[in-house]
Amino acid sequence: MVMSACRAALLLLLCYSITYSYASSLCNRELYAPLWKLRSDQVTILMSGFAERRLPLVRQIARSYSVSPIVHSIYILWGNTSTPWAHLNHTDLVSLGAPVYVVRQETMSLNDRFLPRPYIQTRAVLICDDDITIDVDELKFAFQMWKENDKRIVGFFPRSHEYQLQLKTWIYTIHPDRYSIMLTKLMILATEYLYQYTCAMPHGVKEYIDFNMNCEDIAMNFVVANSTNQGPLLVNGKPRDWGDTRNSINDLSSSALSAKKQHRKNRGDCITAFHQLWEGMPLRYSFGKAINSVEEQVFCEKHGSLLPCNDQSEV
């Protein structure tokens, strides 16, 4: 009995030592290039992948992003540790410009998508899922908005937090005129926040995420808002979400975390837990949207038809 307890204690100590050593090495600043050496004219894409049946879509998305001149490199962070390496190694990743790499994650932790990585050579990273596509012009505009707001998260998928006085708890919601959370479906943020997430978050946050297999994106929003006292920035665009359960053909959506029941309640529980772990609420509301063009919205009668007044076409 005593020997069993000793073995268990020794194993726990060994696991703690390995985890601590791994985390300590990740947080060694000397591993990463200083800010002044990082490129500001391009962005590194970190795309999370897990489901093997999505590999054809992953190839398509990587190829579409690689053509953009603002993309420095694309890393597919493969989180399914049971996928044979040979299967990933033989995945045909065709690039039309920026190089594409597959990085097999060491664990299935959702926190790993935000690990600082020595090979990142840009000041900004684009975090995205393996089921989101956007037009390269929209990508370019979003990156331009980030360069003008480089302390904030810039993205296309806003959500909000809200406090319920009666229940004395936080809820996760979509609000019609404000937002405080940007989803990692597709967002751009400073590379520095990867280090802050991994090495400077309050103790217990990453453990909560690992236990619940959810909310790493909300935690990153906490990290950025806590650092800047600012909310994220929503960019106008028309991203294609292949994994959305509202698609009429939903063969790509069944594996999404958001497809599970009580998703919003679980996310609200995350906000409540993070509020306690941060000992405060750093999330800040934003109210505007960045658009890439301004068009006159006045309509005129032209030859019996109601058309935009600037429309020069013949009726």
Automatic annotation (TrEMBL):
Keywords: Disulfide bond, Signal, Transferase
Pfam families cross-referenced by the UniProt entry: Glyco_transf_64
One MF annotation (Gene Ontology) recorded for this entry: glycosyltransferase activity
Family matches, as InterPro entries: GT64 (IPR053318), GT64_dom (IPR015338), Nucleotide-diphossugar_trans (IPR029044)
Domain (Glycosyl transferase): residue spans on this chain: 44-290
Source species, domain of life: Eukaryota
Signal peptide: 1-23
One Gene Ontology term, aspect cellular component: membrane
Family: Belongs to the glycosyltransferase 64 family.
Protein name listed in UniProt: Glycosyl transferase 64 domain-containing protein
